[in-house]
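Predict the 3D structure for this chain.
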Amino acid sequence: FRLCLPQRPDFGAWQNARSGVYIYQGLTQSHTMASASTESPAAVPEPAFSLSNATVSNPSSEDELSVEDRPKKRPRHLCSLGTGEQVHMMFYKSKPDNIDEFEARVQCAARCFYKMESSVTDVRVCHPCCGEVVFIITFVSLEGLEKFKAGPQRCFESKLAGLLTLDPNGDGSPAFSKCGSLMPACHTLDSLVEYLKLNVHGTDHREHDVRSVSKEMEKWFPRESEYKKHITLCPDNPTKYTRNLIFGNEHFDCILMCWPAGAVSSIHDHEESSCWVVAVEGTVHEVQFAMPMLDKKFLQTEKNDPANAVGEN
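Done. Predicted structure below.
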């Protein structure tokens, strides 16, 4: 497991029995990474490599673009990792002399709201005391919320006109109203590492639930304040990538890697390990290569001189 921040890596040094999760944090807008697998896709029931917030592309077309023309960094928001549902809260309070009439109309409205099905995923009605009510309604989308405001909510408030305190216009408006995106159950960096400690065990991808781990990785919302302390750059060579260990044990390494813009890796694999990647800033481009047929000459030479092994066509 390796967490990475993009810079130019020689991944061959990391071909070991442990798995990796990489989190890439870009120094500028664009980064390039090449990856190859030692096993054909058909031989692996689940993908042994997972890349979040990245693009699989042909480097030749990307090379034709200048850094300025490449995709610009888009701001990320916590709730962008959620379902897009909208939560709407409304608080109404009756005048002391109108509590009975207020309660009757609230009871009728609550019954109607509970029966809503179109565009609604959840309805809650809180009744703190007689004369007060809080509605918390969750909608599939912002469009559904706006339709509710223009229809059922406006109708209900017209029936409360003149009954409410904290209603300066006398039109039944709530004393408090707020709406926003439903916050997803996202990971912090610490909670993500704790999840990985419990769920990444063994020496190769056959022992990992790659799909489940990938889904959890997608739930991490990177904050610079969390990973900034792990960033270490090479003062003598600004083009050199760095590998910054966040956590490691006998099963996986969690590494933050820093890459300068336009950096590339050599073609490499991770043997039978799993590898999960998240780009926290910038853009990472992955190019996957099919494994060629290897003759005996190559395999024999590779044992003694892996970097210079050459076979016959």
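The beta strands are 19-36, 49-52, 55-56, 86-93, 120-126, 132-139, 176-181, 242-248, 252-259, 275-289.
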